[in-house]
Amino acid sequence: MHRSFPEGFLWGGAIAANQCEGGWNKGGKGISVSDVARFKDPETMKDLNDVHSFCDITDEEIRQALDCIDDNQYPKRHGIDFYNRYKEDIALLAGMGFKVFRLSIAWSRIYPNGDDAIPNEEGLQFYDAVFDECLKYGIEPLVTMSHYEPPLQFCMKYNGWYDRRSIEFFTRYVNTITKRYAKKVKYWLTFNEIDSILRHPFMTGGLIESRFAPDKFEEVEYQAMHHQFVASALATKICHENIPDSMVGCMLTKRTIYPYSCRPVDILKTQQEMRSIFAFSDTQVRGEYPAYLLSMYKNKGFDLKIEPEDIEVMKMYPVDFVSFSYYSSTCAASDITNLETGLENTARGVLNPHLNRNDWGWAIDPIGLRVSMVDLYDRYCKPLFIVENGLGARDIVEPDGSIHDDYRIDYFKAHFKSMYDAMTEDGVELLGYTSWAPIDLISNSTNQMSKRYGFVYVDLDDKGNGTYKRIRKDSYDWYKEVISTNGASILNKEE
């Protein structure tokens, strides 16, 4: 039997403006939270696991960043220079046969301070050019409205998403971009990994933790989250009004957590942790807060400012599909004493002794992707879109310029087979898949370049040294064949 993915399946890759564009002070762009994210060289696995300290920031650190003219200390300011090289990069993606390209619009490139009354026309023209370049090759843009780059002034002046005025500022921005690109972009995502505000509140929500009382900060995070939920619902409404045939999705960090043992207390702990993940998609897909989240607010004594119209708006405008990132899995136990813990994306968990891990300690678990797909589809009965999945690794350029990344090919091959099984055996509806990231870029939390995900290598190191030259890895031609055969090249090959 000849096996392949469904006709029309959207194969592609995903990047984010803050990690690749550069041009941080060009074209009228305002400074974003990512432009003050300093490179911190992790010396140990313990350093790597301390995601919060990598991402947290104080007013004094922001002042130091603004006074610093050395862009290499703040790598996201230069990224991989996609701002100037987007034509070359999109041509490389087209060379693999991409059907879809997920990218984000930098809010601060359109509204430099967040609260501006008039958008920056030069920023709008830049994305016009980027989308036109995609469409020239028949590549469908999948656009994230907010991906870790709130304008810095919005954070400094209003405390970011904690201030209710954030809803007004964001919906003004959404109205502008959806009107402007109505004929160019059909697929939209509101907030990237909206749940991540709890893990890195500054990067996601513009919250400067040192400004708030420590015992109140968790409540602050959930208040900011509420404003994002309302803004997401209104963004969905606006997008549907401005682009009638558009599809709007939520995007969450899909963590897959297994019980460390079959002890009932470990099962209960796992269930509770999974609820903490589903809380965010439950709210955006079902249009209302789940009872367990409201119980948590009550039990912790949170007094969130929720207006009556907020509940109505959230209920009326849920998302059309569910998108998610998946990289690895972890375990949960009621007592983690003497158990080894580590990272799973940017969250910590008990390490699974049955799985291998990459150079950054993330478990490699393709079956976990199938589990994730079934979890989400059974729960929501809405189409899914995998918008981030990939392997960060230290690639080596050989003397002849080649890059042999069989480990990356093996990773994707196993995950694609799990995707296919979830679709054909479990009945999951999957719209498409975008790898993270098809071209090397600045990693999110550590601001490293040496953690490479791409099918395309970028000659740039952690210190900002390099030519920025693009080099195709072995995985480039492999993924090209997967796309051209719609997956048949791996599904019908004897191992």
From TrEMBL:
- Annotated catalytic residues: E388
Record's GO cellular component, any one? cytosol
GO annotation, biological process: carbohydrate catabolic process
Keyword Hydrolase present in the record's keywords: the answer is yes
Task: Please tell me whether the keyword Hydrolase is annotated for this protein.
Answer: yes
Q: Can you tell me which family this protein belongs to? A: Belongs to the glycosyl hydrolase 1 family.
State the protein's name: 6-phospho-beta-glucosidase
Q: Which organism is it from?
A: Youngiibacter fragilis 232.1
